[in-house]
Every structure is written in structure tokens, then in C-alpha cells.
Write a structure and sequence with these properties.
The chain is mainly β. It has one domain (1-91). The protein is built from no helices and 6 strands. The two termini are 17 Å apart. 9% of the residues are buried.
Length: 91
Amino acid sequence: MQKDETGQNQVSQEREFERIIIPSIKVNAKVISKPYSELTWDLSNLEQNVASLKDVPTQTTDNNLIFAGHVTVYDGSHGPFRYLFRLVPGD
């Protein structure tokens, strides 16, 4: 992975990801690309998947990736981001 002038990892906004894996909180989820459409992103039927939000309106992402995922899904079970609050720098 390339580094920017501050030494931070640099990620191409054009790259598509198949999965997001965060071992410390047991996340291993499929990533689905969701383009911006008129007023928002269509996140219906996301369930246990994670959305990679594309075409962020009026916002510069500065090489950040924007993901969306459920904490709890419709049936009350845990979503992929249930324990996101437990992440610490370096995870």
C-alpha cells in the first residue's frame, strides 16, 4: 500500500473491495458498492453485508473510505458492525 506525504496509508477511491475483515471484532462481511442516487444511497436489503458508499455529495473524503453496516438487523440478530464501538487504533 502506498503512503501519502504524512506517512498515512493511501487508498484509491476507484478500487472495489470484496470483503471487510476486522478480526478483533469478528467481522468478515461481503462489501457491496452503493452509488449515490438523487438524495441518498439505497441501503435496503443490506442485512449482514457492508455497503461501500460511493459518490459522496459535496464532501472531500481525503482518501477515506465510507462504509455503512447494521448494528442490529431486522430479526434482532447482531449486524456486522455490532461491536464497532470496541475498535481501538491499530485494529
